[in-house]
């Protein structure tokens, strides 16, 4: 890691040219090839898949997407000449448009069924020559404009279908731009520097741009669903900014503590950069866990999201050090640069609100743990009523033409008309089956298509909407009772049945998926932190965070609390595939924060063997950057409400809630409080297991000691001291000077104050290179690198007006 970071820092122009070339090359290739996203919901060994396979054999798929034009009159009938004279010319004009294959009109000889019983609502079907993704938006807009141009007072015309939905979507990139701008504000407030603010944004945009363009190219060789790039953007922006934030924060801290920019950048990459590699790998492993669900639809999601995460890690470990080399000292604000020049390096100790909160948690762990747990349990309660399903155009906003068309069709032909079932019969007599289905509870209409190749399709329109639980019950009734009793081989298919099977399969396999990713996280943390209790605590916290975030999701999207305020349309079931995706992302993000928090605690524990101090110091030094990173992710995720996609809005709100709860309640309160209560047992690992486990260092191992810090050397422990006097140029002793010993990574090892005669003793864990910083009233602060051998080092410090000099 050190070699890579140093090479990228010194060859920054080469690295920048490589990244710009990758962006331009992928952009050119992507624009030339276009996209070929495909939603594949087929599930092996399900009834709806068997029905689909039979229909595909007997009735080859139509070449293009079929959309619907619906109109309603306030008075009279749609058959009136005044209505026909406006609608028919519009339909004929649409039929002549290039790219439109067929228009089925209710005014044709076979169109009587396309008019409602009361005669006030009718619909026509427009079949394009391409699938929805391939239909030019200009053509779709022409169809919409021509259809709605026939409107007049008392005549309402609306349109529905997949192609129509595409032109209602907000401009591509709106959600991403809002998220980036919100993140920029948070970064500027955190860093106080314009250039430092830009670094994480540039890194995230570079990773996201290459990831999305590579995903569009991959869509030509594998099935990638339309929602995949949206989810890739969501996770890519979040982790891309956060990973860069962790490294930049460590780099700035190194410079402020007296390191040169290059050494600080290399150290940051060798410490926080390693944590980023570990975190990114964990996220990818969690995402790959979706493959065990054996759902083709999720395979493309895994490809898009994992690719974006990998590129985010690559950008953070190559592009970022190159940018740090370009900026040099300008990564600090002007105020920080002036203060560094005037007063010297900062002492390495946490202060402010984070330190005070950490002390408060240490004093009252029981009350804080209880309060945090109560909050999480209350938020998790709605998850008990979660219902998986699928969203459709009935969940769109009231103002959209697709929602209006959906409601008109439901009004004129029944709520089940928007999601008919297809009972596919493979040979045999269908008369008895059709008769039985007609008399089945929950069936509104039954229509039989002419058989083809021995396959007959019976279209069944339920009395309830596609998202109703009663429709699910009808499907079960047909499969379990009606069809078996008829003695006919038949299968229930259609979009509604496919989504029901999708939700059922997801629900059945979800416990195994959760067990797999929790077990994986447990093993990774056990190896990294040499403990059984820490990973067990993390696994429990992940489950609590998941339950609470899904509780928030159910309350908003299933119960409808706040949907109008958020402007996200009508409530409905939770999209079936969302729990799998959210759990993968939540697991990965929770591991990020857990690793960042506990690695600092573990580092302190190794040096002091004092659990209370380790937890206090770890929380004080990491809570600010964790909360800042979480705030950025919340801004990015919440912005996806503006994506115009219900699944994107669900994922955004769900992940924003998960990150907020995880960072602000779990990692800042519940985890440290629990670790205080557990004491030294946090770090317990059986001796036999310790010998068998491989060593996996999240950060490079620094000097370790087996005993707590001391002011005198331990002759048998390998530790030593630096001692001497602090004097002025005229030899007068300096009392009260603060001397801080720092490791090469910038971690504070010891801090003492000189006595009345100017003497001091600083404890050193072992031989090596260290940074000794000295601060005294009325004297400028300075720092010097010192080399310590096996014997105590005598090091006198002279506080001059412009520097700290070593006399010896």
Total helical segments: 24
Helix percent reads: 55-70%
Number of strands: 19
Overall shape: elongated
As residue ranges, the low-confidence spans are 702-717, 802-808
Over all CA atoms, what is the radius of gyration?
33 Å
- How far apart the termini lie comes to 36 Å
Return the structural class: alpha+beta
Q: What is the makeup of the main sheet?
A: 5 strands, mixed
**Strand residues, percent:** 5-15%
For the residues shown, what is the average pLDDT? 83
Structure characterization notes:
There is one protein chain. This protein is of the alpha+beta class. It is 56% helix and 13% strand. It has 24 helices and 19 strands. The strands form five sheets. Strands 11, 14, 17, 18 and 19 form a five-stranded mixed beta sheet that branches. The chain has a four-stranded antiparallel beta sheet with strand order 2-3-1-4, sandwiched between helices. A four-stranded antiparallel beta sheet has the order 7-8-6-9, with helices on both faces. Helix 1 (2-10) packs across helix 10 and helix 2 packs parallel to helix 8 (194-218). It starts with a helix and ends with a strand. Mean pLDDT is 83; it is low at 702-717 and 802-808. Its main location: membrane. It is found in: Cell membrane. The chain crosses the membrane at residues 173-191, 198-218, 230-249, 275-295, 301-329, 368-390, 510-529, 536-561, 573-591, 625-643, 649-670.
